[in-house]
Amino acid sequence: MNELKVGILGCGKMGRVYADCFSRNPHTRVTAFYNRTYSRAEALAAEYEGSQAMRTWQEITEDADLDIIGICTPSHEHLEQMSSAIEAGKHVMCEKPMARNAEECRRMCKVASASSVKVAVGFQMRFHPVIRKVDELLPRIGTLFHIDFVFGMNRPEVTWRHKSLQGGGVLKELGMSPEECSTFERILGMPHGIVLVTGPTGSGKTTTLYAALSRINDVERKIITIEDPVEYHLRGINQIQVSTKSGLVFSRGLRSILRHDPDVILIGEIRDRETADIAVQASLTGHLVFSTLHTNDAPGALTRLVDMGIEPYLVASSLEAVLAQRLVRLICPHCREEVEPADRPALEQEFAADVPDVLYRGRGCRECQGTGYRGRAGIFEMMLITDEIRALILEHASAGEIRRSATERGMKSLRQDGWRHVAQGKTTIEEVLRVTKDERLNGNGAGSSFRKAAD
Ligand SMILES: [Zn+2]
């Protein structure tokens, strides 16, 4: 992952907050400061290694080397700086604009919304909890997605948008093993079929799908997404936002999408029979369809679709792969320490793996706010729909039976996959157990995940 370079406009109190946030992040580095009073920029630049003070703000907004521009305490005077940075294709981070009147506020919002890239936030310095929030979210910049701050016009809360970074390699940043990554890439190369990502809310499903789309986003393939809401903006991809309120529901939107005959369709979520039906039809008529489903594990997705009313033969013929996932927190690199594994035999049984002599944990430090964790990575259960599994679907097999068959053919459970990060010293056993606590419930118990998912 490339380091993202940051330029900061404004070197007051807020400039320091920005510089601190960005320099604590392992993926971003502050390299340039500008302040109307040059000596203040110089003073701040002296504190951050590898950075320098600039004489004009254009040297920052127009510097091709910089990826992110932080504009501190922006006012109407900074509108030009903001526009310039946006035009130069930068990601812009700033606080609530202090527009003098509604007209100016509208103008700033217009500048922000006109760009397909980035922009601006509504947080105010005196709301410390919000600053903390920004700080928490910053580590995600440069790991996968750029955070796109959007003006909060009337509401005090911050609206977060994410933006994928351009260029390849994002798929590799998700936390997959090299084998998983190459299997997933093979799936992405399929001409048609349905690929589902499952997991509870906040398990990183959308992130994975967008990394997948970025990977296959080329001029040859026409990609259309239909989402509620559009969470990430991708260049070159036609994204349609549906709103159940306005009456443009998923299924209707999907029908109109199919008339444009795209090669790849991303459906934000399959939440009802109608959407599932259209996904199946689309895949059977030669489209590659990505979507998400709320089930705990991969086998549960099959039974869930049948439960929604899709004929098993249609599930069997359209589905190509299911990826269940969770996010585990990673050990803070600043306070990582060795720990001897306790109760080795129990661990070896739990994870079906050899336990190394030394494991790690985060002691807790200032960098990680005492939590011992910093950053997150995905763990995956990747199920390919093989002929054996298709046969099981046709036989109305339970999720448990499907799981057993997939496991026999080498599918790793979420917990087993999580062990990979433990063995590499990247996360802790407690963390893997925490995010996979449902797994024991499913275990090998026939059909239990099916009933759970059908709730
Ligand atoms: Zn720490």
Written overview of the protein:
The chain has 19 helices and 17 strands. It is of the alpha/beta class and 455 residues long. A seven-stranded mixed sheet has the order 11-9-12-13-8-14-17, with helices on both faces. The chain has a five-stranded parallel sheet with strand order 3-2-1-4-5, sandwiched between helices. Strands 6-7-10 form a three-stranded mixed sheet. Helix 12 packs antiparallel against helix 14. The longest helix has 13 residues. It is flat, with a radius of gyration of 24 Å. Zinc ion binds next to loops.
Can you count the beta strands? Answer: 17
Q: What is the arithmetic mean of pLDDT?
A: 76
Sheet with the most strands, sense and barrel status: 7 strands, mixed
How large is the share of residues in beta strands? 15-25%
Q: Helical region count?
A: 19
| Biggest sheet strand line-up | 11-9-12-13-8-14-17
Q: From the alpha-carbon coordinates, what is the Rg to the nearest angstrom?
A: 24 Å
Q: What overall form do the CA principal axes indicate?
A: flat
Runs in which pLDDT lies below 50 for 5 or more consecutive residues are 112-169, 442-455
How would the blueprint of this fold be written?
Blueprint: E1 4-9, H1 13-24, E2 28-34, H2 38-47, E3 52-54, H3 58-61, E4 68-71, H4 79-87, E5 91-94, H5 102-114, H6 128-137, E6 145-150, E7 159-164, H7 178-188, E8 193-198, H8 205-216, E9 223-227, E10 232-233, E11 238-241, H9 250-259, E12 264-267, H10 273-284, E13 288-293, H11 298-308, H12 312-318, E14 319-331, E15 336-339, H13 344-351, E16 359-362, E17 373-384, H14 387-394, H15 399-408, H16 414-423, H17 429-435, H18 439-442, H19 448-453
Parallel strand pairs: 1-2, 1-4, 2-3, 4-5, 7-10, 8-13, 8-14, 9-11, 9-12, 12-13
Antiparallel strand pairs: 6-7, 14-17, 15-16
Helix pairs in contact: 9-10, 10-12, 11-15, 12-14, 14-15
